[in-house]
Each structure stands twice: as structure tokens, then as C-alpha cells.
Design brief:
The complex is a heterodimer of chains A (268) and B (303). With 268 residues, chain A is mostly helical. Chain A has helices at 8-23, 25-52, 59-65, 77-115, 119-124, 129-166, 174-199, 205-212, 216-227, 235-258, 262-266. With 303 residues, chain B is α/β, with parallel strands linked by helices. Classes of the chains: A mainly alpha (268), B alpha/beta (303). At the A-B interface, α1, α5 and α11 of A face α2 and α3 of B. The complex binds adenosine-5'-triphosphate and magnesium ion (MG).
Amino acid sequence: MKAVRLSAKERAIVRKDLRGIWKTRMVRLTVILVPVLLCFAMPAFYLFLAWMVPETELEGTRELAAMLPAAAEGLSERQLMVVMISRLLGPMFFLMIPLMVSTASAACSFVGERENGTMETLLLAPVSLRQIFRAKVTACLLLSLITELVSLLAFSAVMAAASLLFEVPYYLDWSWAVLILLLSPGVTLFGVTFMVLISGRSKSSMEAMQTSGYLVLPVVLLFVGQLSGAFTLGPGLLLVLSLAVAAADAVLASLASRAFTPEKLLRA
Amino acid sequence: MDALTAEGLTRRFGEKTALSRLSLALEQGSVFGFLGPNGAGKTTTVKLFTGLLTPTEGSCSVLGLDPRREAEKVHAQCGVLTESARMYPHLSGLENLAFFGALCGLSRAGARERGEELLKRLGLAEAGKLPAGKYSTGMAQRLSLARALLGRPRVLFLDEPTSGLDPESAQAVNAMIGEQAGQEGVTVFLCTHQLRYAQDLCGSYGVIDHGELLALGGLEDLAARAGCRTYAAFRLAEGETLPGFERDGAWLRRAISSEDEMPGLLREAVAAGRCVYEARIEPPTLEDVYFRFVGRGEGGETV
Ligand SMILES: Nc1ncnc2c1ncn2[C@@H]1O[C@H](COP(=O)(O)OP(=O)(O)OP(=O)(O)O)[C@@H](O)[C@H]1O
Ligand SMILES: [Mg+2]
């Protein structure tokens, strides 16, 4: 995909959209609370537990962690808890956050605009459909990527503390690199384009957001599946997944831009 | 080049034909009144001309451009006011205008200045900082008109611009429209139920019902075709009559074929010793013409 600079009109729509999305309480909560809870509060709480609770009471961890390849590395229970967070929970969060933020902001930007009755006004302005589409998708991507970046910083801080306290290697590895650089952005685009496609069929942005909730399901299954020992999400598998998501993105994006016509957008 | 053309323009929604084979051509600078009862197909026509709907059959053009394929260029020269096009509720009136001004290609300062000017003219200067979501119906309607005028349009589509307005707001809006209509080369396509006002403003009319264009032309032309006559009307002393005149309340009326008959009739009445309190010529009004055409469409019933 070629990166083209946005025109002044497109930038005006992006600014307006970001402002509108931010004014929606539901989205603001998603953008602030979800990353804080998942990437900061929860891992910090677990690490705090691991630090406070006597090691003998952490037996359950070993059973769970036994499913992970790291179990064989002769780590202590405490260290295993850190590994669980960095290899099991963390990656799941970094797929759920892009998905939730991108669908919430797209619901706001696309369905919300129709709910407000402003889609028609926007369509009557001297901008092309293509420009509106590009600007709106950009606004949603921008917000999601910023959220992901902030989440990543928070998570990295917690994990830095963990590696100091429990003497485990820092969490970043090749799997994380593929996850953060390829899979997360791909999933973000997936969330946005998916939302554009279902926006015509949803009566309200709330309904659209609920429908998109189903998208979180495969993500959860993916990580629960790891516990069954059927597969491990290493860099290779993640790369394959990224390619699959990218292909799905291309299909969805072309479908979504085709569905982006005045009649479909204004259909009550 | 005509400002607007339509050829066999048809739009169906499923079984329902909202607009059937509309053909018309409006010169640049004309002020056109599009009249018809609820559900006649007026809004559908505006949406077809502005590219929000695709024709089922036929075609239309605005300043020689296809509104569907060249929507951006058409919108750059059109101001459109429809009931369903709202403003952003969380942005103030002025911010809304600044945003749409930017989309019209105005600079930030230019959009602000133009926005402020329009708000002032429409009596919204004080409400400029208020979120548009807090506007009353009339204020929102005036803000939408300001939005439609932002880009100094050459064609103005106004779909019931004064519906829901109090008399003062309606007056402000009508004055603004009148001013636009008076400008050189600005074409106005006005859908309205305010027949009196349309008669003052418009140079030609279309009457539509059930998606069918029933009549098209200037008032005199339409009146002649509808069989609406001009009347001479006298108010005489109570109980007095005149030969050939019919009583209508306090007035005696008689159809005339030309205004030139009036002085003669007046002389006759005075010569016959009648006490003439008032005398006037009653040309057919748009209202008369409208009801003739629409009534005819309903199967002869007249109001
Ligand atoms: N999106 C749509 N789907 C189905 N039917 C529609 C749609 N839009 C309009 N119609 C039908 O088309 C007909 C014409 O509607 P339109 O809105 O053009 O009328 P109008 O002349 O603007 O009426 P009003 O004076 O009430 O505004 C109506 O019978 C309406 O029910
Ligand atoms: Mg209408």
C-alpha cells in the first residue's frame, strides 16, 4: 500500500473525527481503561502477588505453566508467573486492545456519523467519497496505534520491574517483534474495515460494537488453545497469522470501500 | 449551459415509484419553486440532483456535471439544505461552519470570517459558541442554511428551508434566500409548502404529485393552462348587485380576460348608480393554480 500524504480537507476530517470519537464516553473509556487494566494494573497485580505470596502456595502456576515450553527451563514458580504474563497473557492483550479500540472508534466514526444525521452533510460537502473513506480510516488507525503505543510503554515498564525483581530475561523477543510490528497493526486495520462493512447493517453504534465483540472470541481461543499444547505461538506461527490477517485486510478493505456509497451509507 | 437538467429521471424504492420520468431544464440564474404535497417526490428529486441517490432510470446534471460520478465538483458549486443533513452536535455552531468551510477549501481564517458573517446575518451571532446539539429547531435550520451558503454556491437546493421556523426566523431565512436569488447567475431550486412566499420569490414552478410532474412553467402560463381566470371584484353598498357578477361574501366578482376591462366595468357600475366602496383586480394566485393541478391529480376534487 502506498503511503500518500493526506490533503488539507482529509486532515480536517481526521481532526474532526478524532475529536468526535474522543467525545464519546464509551470510546474514551475503552481507550483509557482497557490498556490501563490489561497492560498495567493486571500484570502489576500478578507480579505483586508473586512477590508477596510464599513460593509454596504458587503450585497452581507450575501446573498451568507446564503447558508452556518454558516449563522445561528449570525456572522457579515466581519466574514462571512472569513468563506466563509475557508469553501468554501479554500477547493476548496486544491483540485484544487493537481490536477493541479500532472497532470502538470505527463504530463511532462511521455508524455514529449516520446516527447523528451528519453523514449526509459530510457527503454533500465538496470532498470525494474516497477522501472521506481515507480520512476516517486514518483517524481510527491513528487512535488505535497511539493507544497501542501507550499500552506497550506501560507493559514494558511493568515487565522491566519484573525482570529486575525475579531475574528473568526481558520479555521482548522475536515473537513480540512480529506481534507488535505486524500482527497488531494488521488486526487494527481488520477491526476498522470489518466495522465499516457491518456499519450499514447496524442500527446504532452500540449494536455495531456488540457485533464486533465476536471478533475477540478467536483471539481468546488462540491463546487458550496454547494451553492445550496443540501449538505454540512462536515467531513463525505469528508471521503466518500476520500474513493471513493482511490478506483478510486487503479483501475487507476493498469490500468496505466498495460498500462506501451514499446510498449504503444513508440507508436508515 | 443550463444550471439543472433532468431527462426521464426516475427513482423507485422497491415497488414504490418516488419519482417518475421527470424532465426539465433550468437556466442559470432562474429561481424555481418545486411544489407538491407530502410524499410527492420533492426530496427524492433534490437527493438525485445532489448525488445522494442514484437514478433508477434516466439522468440528471448540475452545471453540466453528473452528480453521481462528479459529486465532488458538483458539491463545490452547490449549496444544499435538506432536513436530514444535520450538524455535529458536539461542535459549536462556529466550529461546525469552520469545519465545513475547510471542506469547501477555505483557509482557517477565511472559514471563520465567513462563518461569523453568515451567523450574524442569520441572527445567530450569539449562539455561535453554543454546541449545535443545544440549538432549537429554528436555530439548527438557520445554521444549516449558513452551512449551505459557505462556499458561495452557484446553485442552491433548498428543501423546505422554513419548515418548523417561527415567523421571525422564517423572515430572516426568506430574506437571505431572496438575496441569494437576486444575485447574478445564482440558481435556486426551492421545495416549499409556503405558496405565498414562493409566488413572491420564484420565476417558474413545477408542480409534482405522486412522483409525476403535473405542470411546469411561469405563473401566468400555468394559470392559463389550469383555467384559472383573473377576476374583477367590487364591494358595493349592501344589497346592491351588478349584472354578470357573482356574489362571494361581501364582494361581487366576475371573470375578465384582460385588465383592460376594469376601467370600463368601473365606469358602468358608477354610471348605474352603484356605491363602489372598493374595486380590485384579482389575478390567479399560485395557491389557486396549485390546487387546480394537485386537485386534478386526486381525481377532480378541488379545495
Ligand atoms: N429511502 C426510501 N425508501 C423507501 N421509500 C422512500 C424512500 N425515500 C422516499 N420514499 C418514498 O418516496 C415518496 C416520495 O418521498 P419524498 O421524500 O421525495 O417526498 P417529499 O415530496 O419530499 O414529501 P414532503 O413534502 O413530505 O417532504 C414517498 O412516498 C416516500 O415514502
Ligand atoms: Mg421532503
